[in-house]
Amino acid sequence: MAMDEIVDGLSEVSCDVLVIGGGTAGPMAALKAKMKNPKANVVLLEKANVKRSGAISMGMDGLNNAVIPGYATPEQYTKEITIANDGIVDQKAVYKYAQSCYGIIEELDSFGIRFLKNENGDYAVKKVHHIGTYVLPMPNGETVKKALYRQLRRARILISNRYMATRLLKSSDGRIAGAVSVNTRTAEMLVIKAKAVILCMGAAGRLGLPTSGYMFGTYENAANSGDGYAMAYHAGAALANLECFQINPLIKDYNGPACAYVAGPFGAYTANNEDRRFIECDYWSGQMMLEFYNELLSGKGPVFLQLKHLHDKTIEEIEHTLHKVERPTRGLFQEGRGVDYRKESIEMHISEIGFCSGHSASGVFVDDNARTTVPGLYAAGDMASVPHNYMLGAFTNGSFAGLDAMEFADNHDFGAIDAGEIALERERVMAPTKREDGIPPNQIEYKTRRLVNDYLQPPKVTRKYELGMRRLAEVREDMQERMIARNAHELLRALEVQSIMDCADMAAHASLFREESRWGLYHWRTDFPEKDNENWFCHTLLSKQDGRMTSEKRAVQPYVVPIADDEKDLYDKQRIRASA
Amino acid sequence: MPLATYQTSVPVVVDDAKCIADKGCTVCVDVCPLDVLRISDMTGKAFMAYDECWYCMPCEADCPTGAVTVNIPYLLR
């Protein structure tokens, strides 16, 4: 039988802990769960192939948030992340991360993943953030996925590649019971019963449309279509601060990082068309992005990453990292355009919008044990709400999730699954394959994402949002009634666009709920241009209640690390003062 | 509604002379995060079946014979 030909079939398996998503957090969660109880069955389900899936498909060029003794303290890091997020942080989870991440670095080191060390053999940590020093380069970061894969094989984790999870299953008591998935090459469905489930499904990175117009030229790995956000939503889990969008400064058109974290510590900086600096700090925050956006539109754009003033040897070192690790086609792109960093600055632009707590704070709500609001359901990595957690946060929070989920599985039996629910989901998943005639998924996706750009990207205007939601509802109807998939690969895309549509709706709903402006560009509402601490110094939680999208406030939990009044606005002072 | 096919110049190029997919190799097809590569029924060689590329490179980096080249997709080149 030819690949992609549709097979209508359904089978069922069971395991103790099911980890969905084999990128960064997922492998670590699976490993930790298995180490906690080696007799238990741990299944790692992946839409692509664990060998090369996720945001770090080709590795990572550095740790952006390493709290290493001698360079930074957990208290300092917690304070920095709290301020960078305008105070809307549950510090307990950030503090726990900060205390534990050094142990994870040492563990990664023992896996054979190498970090930059100085001549004394100490980690060579660099300063990029406003206050502290947390950036640790990984000149050999291309080895990350291979090293993780070796560990998974050694621990005998059961890996199922090319299965896309579509919905979570719960038992009647509200506890997690498993997930429904579909093979992306045959369309055969697989129901996986599990005592605990960990979602590590990455960012919602295919939400906005890149300015190049190429649908898969996204900042995030384009496989990260927000499936985890959609699945958590439909399972009734709460999602936090979705209005705090991810928007990043990137190489224009290429749409990958330049990357100020790599080049900044060597002396590179962000400049305008007069070759002048205009921001104090290159750390990606909403306030920094607002200054970036303003500069682009001010007549002083384009904005550039400036390297040409650096020594040839230094540029060579930066090139080595940029062109070998994380997004190695950066070199090919610059070569094609004839850009030599010695002579010319790198033209920058801002990315499409997305959800990603890896860089912002928009994620499925989790506590400091990576627990969501659904018993037995966990989330970690870019899709879970611990803010600015990056790759090391995915590993560390993934580790918390794995340990706690196995404990949950050890203390619970399988939840009962309603066969009717599975039948309904099968019908929903396969619907595009049953139609003779209709609209292909790529057109539904293009239109959805074009509407996201037209109506939802900041500045957020209430009237535009209302129109955008109406247009999106029309496309949703087409998607539900008329979308066709003629083979299993198209069915994969048809399922992804349903996640994208759910994320677009959640982005709109969450943004309209918070009636203030906060986090710089991420949530800039022109109808409510001021920060309103009196009414909105809180998280927002979005969830599905009685079948309807609902938002509510959640109080910021008492701080573990107090922030002095004169420290609170450090990240608001991003713009370099004139004639400084 | 009738459907039309849409022409695109694809970013991933496979050198048929070097590709050993006809001998059973499926490495590039296996590793692609977007699952856009296939083995041709006609030639037995790997090719890009879907223009949905993140220009990320595992197909090129992991190919045992150096047959795969990833180019930047034309729209953003």
UniProtKB/TrEMBL annotation, chain B:
Official protein name in the record: Putative ferredoxin
A molecular function (GO) term: metal ion binding
Query: Residue limits of the 4Fe-4S ferredoxin-type domain?
Result: 10-42, 44-73
Q: Which domain of life is it from?
A: Bacteria
Coiled-coil stretches: none
Starting at the broadest rank, the lineage of the source organism is: Bacteria, Pseudomonadati, Pseudomonadota, Alphaproteobacteria, Hyphomicrobiales
Show the SUPFAM superfamilies listed in the entry: 4Fe-4S ferredoxins
Q: Which Gene3D superfamilies match?
A: 3.30.70.20
